[in-house]
Amino acid sequence: MRLFITGSESFVGRELLAQCASAGIACTGIDSAPVSREGFEHLDIRSERVEEVLPEDVDAVVHLAAMSRDADCVDHLYDTFDVNVMGTLNLMRAAKAKGAKQFIFASSEWVYDSCQAGVVKTEDSIIDISRHTSEYALSKLAGEAVLRQQFLRGFCDTTVLRFGIIYGPRPSNWSAVEAILHKIRRGETVQVGSEQTARRFIHVSDIARGIVKAVGWPGFTVVNLEGSRLVTLREIADASARVLGTSAQVVATGGSASVRDVSGDRAAELFQWSPTVDLEEGLRSLLAFV
């Protein structure tokens, strides 16, 4: 198996490469950040040289590279679409020219609009683009749309993976999981709007396993990679306290709970994949970084 990975130096990219190395999967790729790995290049996905460095007949192009922090995308619509949409189109052109067998696109659960308690979103949920205010979410929806259109016109097998809210061992760009553990470790009070705000948080190692499971899947497929259950902010605080052997001081400042319940059932059905890292195990993996 041979993969070509964009965003190889990203949080998910590094974990994916580690798992591929353990499994004997050959990888090459690019990143806009400096790289030192053999077979990888410092290259922007918008570059004309992408086709030059993409090997012939790879089993899958795994497209992780993107402007992915919402804070970087807000009020920067041109830059966001230039990287996330035009960069994707450039990579698709190269993949077609080099005969790639599959294109795996990293999308996000943020493409789902109007999430509320008691409503479970699935890959078949209708998405109302008029409800989106996030430049990042719009760019991912546009990427999905052009991939679907081009697949119908003869582009290679395409798998869209909508990632859940990822956490894991990293020094910055934290989700609520890392941020809450950090505050409790420092003995600080955790302030939240509502203790019952909940997400299906997913550890980065489970995301990487899901990507590997998707390699070789035929046709055009959209699949959510999500945590096994909803986890509230209160649960994160209590689990953090147990892991640290301390107590958690949590103050709710008011407001209704924000709940995003996105199903991962299709990944289990198609890929025989399910998350394996539970919350406390995941929290322990963060201790060197918080």
Produce the secondary structure layout.
Elements: E1 2-6, H1 11-23, E2 26-31, E3 40-42, H2 50-53, E4 60-63, H3 70-73, H4 77-97, E5 102-108, E6 120-121, H5 135-152, E7 157-163, E8 166-167, H6 176-185, E9 190-192, E10 198-199, E11 202-203, H7 204-214, E12 220-225, E13 231-232, H8 233-244, E14 250-252, E15 259-262, H9 265-271, H10 279-284
Parallel strand pairs: 1-2, 1-4, 2-3, 4-5, 5-7, 6-15, 7-12, 8-11, 9-14, 10-15
Antiparallel strand pairs: 10-13
Helix pairs in contact: 1-7, 4-5, 6-8
Could you walk me through the main structural features you see in this protein, from its secondary elements to its overall organization?
The protein has helices at 11-23, 50-53, 70-73, 77-97, 135-152, 176-185, 204-214, 233-244, 265-271, 279-284; strands at residues 2-6, 26-31, 40-42, 60-63, 102-108, 120-121, 157-163, 166-167, 190-192, 198-199, 202-203, 220-225, 231-232, 250-252, 259-262. By secondary structure, it is of the alpha/beta class. It has one domain (2-167, 203-227, 262-276): Rossmann fold. Helix 1 (11-23) links the parallel strand 1 and strand 2 (26-31). The longest helix is centred in the first third of the chain and has 21 residues, at 77-97. The model has no long low-confidence stretch (mean pLDDT 97).
Characterize the overall form.
globular
Largest sheet: 7 strands, parallel
Summarize the amount of helix as a percent range. Answer: 25-40%
Structural class: alpha/beta
Percent range for β-strand residues: 15-25%
